[in-house]
Amino acid sequence: LAYNQIAPFLRFAHLTANQAILDAAASGGARRLHIIDLDAAHGVQWPPLLQAIADRADPAVGPPEVRITGAGPDRDVLLRTGDRLRAFASSLKLPFRFHPLLLPCTAQLAADPATGLDLHPDETLAVNCVLFLHRLRGEGEVATFLKWVKSMNPAVVTIAEKEASSDGCPDDLPRRVAAAMGYYSAVFDALEATAPPGSADRLLVESEVLGREIDAALAAAPAPGRVGEHSWGFEAWASAARAAGLSPRPLSAFAVSQARLLLRLHYPSE
Hints:
- This protein is an alpha/beta fold.
- The chain is built from ten helices and five strands, in the order ααβαβαβαβαβαααα.
- α2 (9-28) packs parallel to α3 (46-56) and α2 (9-28) runs antiparallel to α10 (253-266).
- This is Monoculm1B.
- It comes from Mnesithea lepidura.
């Protein structure tokens, strides 16, 4: 949460993904929207979307029903997330349901991807993969997962990942270091403009988020009991999506202007 407050990266991904989901729901015309969120965690992505849906509702017919299937490894966290989102939706008078989907590990989803999902043909389906795909184990698992996503015939699939290409050199430490330096130097430059090096939030983000990411990026193999994370560049992620039969969709003009506004809020002098 601290990272989300001092840097625009995650918020940018969330707002842009939300706008794509809004656009897909509007073009589909369905009265029911089902979002499968593969990394629901604390659900910080969804209040702005629920607010936007409520604000756009036609007073004559009321807002559409929204259903979120939120996946994650911790049942208690998912239940608390569902409670918060239900309370927020209730304050908006928005019909809403939240279904927790317990996934102890991402490999379980790739092995049995239909687990716990309840799909209906009268729903507009959106699959949200914000900072999720890099947790899958290698190209084969990514390909299997994306083909499963495609098989559900979603109206939109939102994918956001770090554009840091460190795969392809598991036994070459200098190359992994160079790749990490290129990516994380840009991240720290961005943080420099929003949080001074000695601030409590900055220290927390560096130790709990960025430090762990850098350790994982430099590791030749995951520690025992951990699934290795991998980082690809934009073209590799796009190629994997195309290979699964997914087609890119251009951002709407509103999504672009919203992203620019967010960047100006964080970096007004740039």
